[in-house]
């Protein structure tokens, strides 16, 4: 299982790329050095509260949304969770089948 710091770094990178921002542009918007963005994305450090607040503002998301990282977990673990949910819920299985096929 990945650490919170690992998942958070991946989430910041995902949010940055979704907004077509470079690390340099994000650093400028958040008013920190580009090296700090790189360290955050590489899970070497965790942002200070002030920086976290600025990231939330730049990405226009809530604090809870920035920590939504379940989709970044290992693919095998995600498949296991999906199959377990599908086994438990027949209606969900039918709905997903209709969506896919």
From TrEMBL:
Protein name per Swiss-Prot or TrEMBL: Helix-turn-helix transcriptional regulator
Coiled-coil region list: none
Molecular-function annotations in GO: DNA binding
This protein's record includes keyword Endoplasmic reticulum: no
The keyword DNA-binding is annotated on this UniProt entry: yes
InterPro entries xrefs: Cro/C1-type_HTH, Lambda_DNA-bd_dom_sf
Organism: Candidatus Scatenecus faecavium
UniProt keyword annotations, A-Z: DNA-binding
Residues covered by the HTH cro/C1-type domain: 12-66
Taxonomic lineage: Bacteria, Candidatus Scatenecus
């Amino acid at each position: 299982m990945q650490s919170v710091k690992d998942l958070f770094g991946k989430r910041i990178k995902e949010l940055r790329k979704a907004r077509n921002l470079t690390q340099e542009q994000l650093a400028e918007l958040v008013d920190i050095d580009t090296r700090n963005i790189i360290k955050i994305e590489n899970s070497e450090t965790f942002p200070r509260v002030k920086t976290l607040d600025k990231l939330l503002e730049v990405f226009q998301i809530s604090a809870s949304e920035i920590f939504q990282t379940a989709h970044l977990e290992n693919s095998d673990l995600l498949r296991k969770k999906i199959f377990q949910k599908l086994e438990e819920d027949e209606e969900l299985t039918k709905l997903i089948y209709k969506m896919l096929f």
